[in-house]
Amino acid sequence: MEHDPSTTSHYVSDDFYQGLMDAFTGWQSDTAEITDPARRDECRRVLEREARLLDAGSNDDWLGMYARECLYWVPASADGGDPRHEVATAFDDRRRLEDRVFRLSSDYAWSQQPQSRTSRIVSNVAVFATAGDEIVMTRSNFLITEFQAGDYRTWAGWYGHRLRRTGAGWEILVKQVNLINYDQNMRNPSITL
Amino acid sequence: MDGLTPPLATRIDGYDFNYLIQEDRVHRHIYTEEPIFRAEMNRVFGAVWVYLGHESQIPNNDDYVQTRLGLRPIVLVRDSAGKIRALYNRCTHRGSTICRQPSGSAKAFQCPYHGWTFLNSGKIGGVPWPDGYADDFSDSKFNLAQVPRVESYRGFIFGTLNMDAPTLMEYLGPVAKPLAEWVDRHPGKKVVLCNANRLKLHGNWKLVYDNSADGYHVVFSHRSLLAMENRLAAAGDNKGMTFYKESPDSAPMYVYYFGNGHHFKDKRGNVERGKPGALWEIEGVAPGMEYFEEKLRREHPARADEFLDLAASEPMNINVFPNLHILGNHIQVVQPLSVAETDTTWWGTAVVDDDNVLDGAVDDINAIRMRTQEGFPNFGEVDDLMNFEQIQVGLQAEEDEWAYTHRGLGLSDRFSVDEAGTIKGPATDEVFLREYFKEYRRLMTTEPNIQIARET
Asked: What gap in Å lies between CA B316 and CA B253, rounded to an integer?
């Protein structure tokens, strides 16, 4: 039976979790790095577009960059931990990611009233091959400056993206957001990182 | 242990708590004034039993985790003999912290500054080049200070510096019952901590305590969450916090004030008690819930509802003054940092199956349970914290002095009081605020008998 991941979560299964653990373990090796500048630039453009859409508040277009069965993951542990046995700062499947966007688009998400302005820098992009034909992993560093109601805050760390080539370009299967302060208390973590 | 030291003096010059805390209102100064905050660290946090940590954070001998008692840096240890101690993280030589890692395992701590070493019992182990001292270090004053009274209840570790405080069980009083009920529904009557959603606010710590049994704010402060939780729900479904939607004061949920500042919001009247699957029915959506529900129903048809209830949470908020809150499956710990900065850490809890009573389903239960717990901190608490921060901003208005706490005051038919003195009121009533502030006023006008202990 076909399930719509926007309304039910059947794909976040044992296999999904195991695949996630496998995909995000030991993937950043020199031997797997894709050094072809054209391929690297293609992936870099995906990351830069994502940052641009988030800075612009174009949440629907941003969501459109994600695969139907996707994951937005902000671990509360170094190297991700094991999300089957621990809570994460965020672990959003498709439905919860749409929930997140829905909530932020309401006028009643007080943590985003007034709305934060952000400026994102994504850099140090490295692309790694995987066993999957049309799937690559990217590692990039990020620095988000957030301004809200007179306050500046910064969010820093590195992203691990799992990207799949489609007919139309690349779609994001998983975005792992590794904050350098993943184990510290955070003030108003309500923007999408 | 003995070697007790004399009480510390605390003074709160210029503040009259009989004026600041009134029957129907409290003064802005209790949230904004630095001298009051400093006094609270002794008269509240130094006087009562303060939650320090959970036994599952230090499961084995020699395990430790850093915590605080008020602002005092503490290393909570299970020492080499198995005794739980709350050691001051402060070298007796020059005052440096001796433990710098948030948690770990160690038989001894060596101060990084001059190399003094302390056993995890707090006793000094040695100092470099001892022949440079006329002392032989047998005086107990060189052993680490520690919290003189440390006790556990149902896995929760508390400590107090106040030699005149009652026993922990007397301090908890009637709040011990819901705490036990919350823990005991799990196999082996226990849960373990499993990482946390860690939040911070630029606001006074009491703003968090004020909110903890507040049923009045829910449909307003959490308006976006309620809309989100129900955007996919069929009409008539009651998911998440929807029982607040219509007329919360006529719903079968109540606020209880227990004394000693503790209170309790019991929403369990909204679910059919004892019916397997009743908790799962009202659980909001979470990643993987359909997959794991189908798997549990397929593999454990007779017990699936019981297992799914363990992945869901009981609708109760248990508030143990001054810093421990149980909400759903979370253990929320409030840590004051300054008069206008507070950490609030939402520890997740996992089910354990030491006695193999769950037919191998424990991992599937936890795979759902982790995801159900990530919802509220992400989509609910962030909005509350913004509102608390904006109270801190609003209270900077000096001439507008009062914040009101009088919802329900003067309407005596809204309350009942049982023989133990527990006050029961409707869900949105502020009776818990008025009552806990009376206890706060009593504490702030009483000098606690604060002492520290050292091994001898």
From this structure: 9
Q: How far is CA B9 from CA B45, B130, B350, in A?
A: 14, 35, 42
pLDDT at res. A112: 97
- Tokens 């606690």 correspond to B448
Among chain B residues, the shortest Cα distance to A184 is held by B198
| Residue B133, SS3 per DSSP | coil
Rounded average pLDDT over B302-324: 97
Q: Residues of chain A whose pLDDT is less than 70?
A: none
Residue A153 contacts B where some CB pair is shorter than 8 Å: no
- Which pLDDT does position B9 carry in this prediction? 43
Cα–Cα dist A110/B380, whole Å: 10
Report how far residue A177's alpha carbon sits from residue A179's, in angstroms, rounded to the nearest whole number.
6
On whether any CB of chain B is under 8 Å from the CB of A96, the answer is yes
A110 CB within 8 Å of a chain B CB:
yes
What are the pLDDT digits (tens) for B347-379?
Answer: 999 999 999 999 999 999 999 999 999 999 999
**What distance lies between CA B454 and its chain's CA centroid?**
27
B399 to each of A78, A159, B163, B395, B404, how far by Cα in Å? 48, 48, 40, 9, 15
The answer to ipTM > 0.90 is: yes
Q: What is the pLDDT of residue A133?
A: 79
Q: Which of A7, A100, A186 sits opposite B199 (nearest CB)?
A: A186
Which residues, 6+ apart, have CB-to-CB distance to B413 below 8 Å?
none
* Residue B297 half-sphere exposure toward CB, CA atoms < 13 A: 10
Count each helix (H run) and each strand (E run) in chain B, helices first.
14, 21
SS3 B150: strand
Q: Which class for B326: exposed (0-12), middle (13-18), buried (19 or more C-beta within 10 A)?
A: buried
Dihedral angle sign, alpha carbons of residues A137, A141, A147, A153: positive
Q: Using CB atoms within 10 Å of the CB of residue B354, give its burial: 0 to 12 exposed, 13 to 18 middle, 19+ buried.
A: exposed
Asked whether residue B227 carries a pLDDT value surpassing 90, the answer given is: yes
Please, what is the average pLDDT of chain B?
Answer: 94
- Write out chain B residues lying below 8 Å of A3, CB-based: 290
Closest approach of B442 to chain A, Cα-based (Å): 32
Percent of chain A with pLDDT over 90: 96
**Look-up: residue for tokens 């909204």?**
B270
pLDDT in tens, B170-203: 999 999 999 999 999 999 999 999 999 999 999 9
Could you write out the DSSP letters of every residue in B61-78?
TTEEEEEEETTEEEEEEE
Stated as kind and residue range, the H or E segment containing B438 is: helix B431-444
**Is the CB of B382 inside 8 Å of chain A's CB atoms?**
yes
For residue B191, list chain A residues with Cβ-Cβ distance below 8 A: none
What is the pLDDT averaged over residues B308-332? 97
In sequence order, what are the beta bridge partners of B254? Answer: B266, B426
Q: Rounded to whole angstroms, what are the CA distances from B295 to A94, B28, B310?
A: 20, 54, 15
Q: In the structure encoding, which two tokens stand for residue B82, read together?
A: 């198995």
Buried b (16+ CB within 10 A) or exposed e, B228-259: bbbebeeeeeebbbbbbeeebbebebbbbbbb
- A185 DSSP assignment: -
Residue B232 scores a pLDDT above 90: no
A100 at B interface, C-beta within 8 A: yes
pLDDT given for residue B8 in this prediction? 45
Residues B305 and B277: beta-carbon distance below 8 Å = yes
| CB-CB contact of B436 with B209 (8 Å) | yes
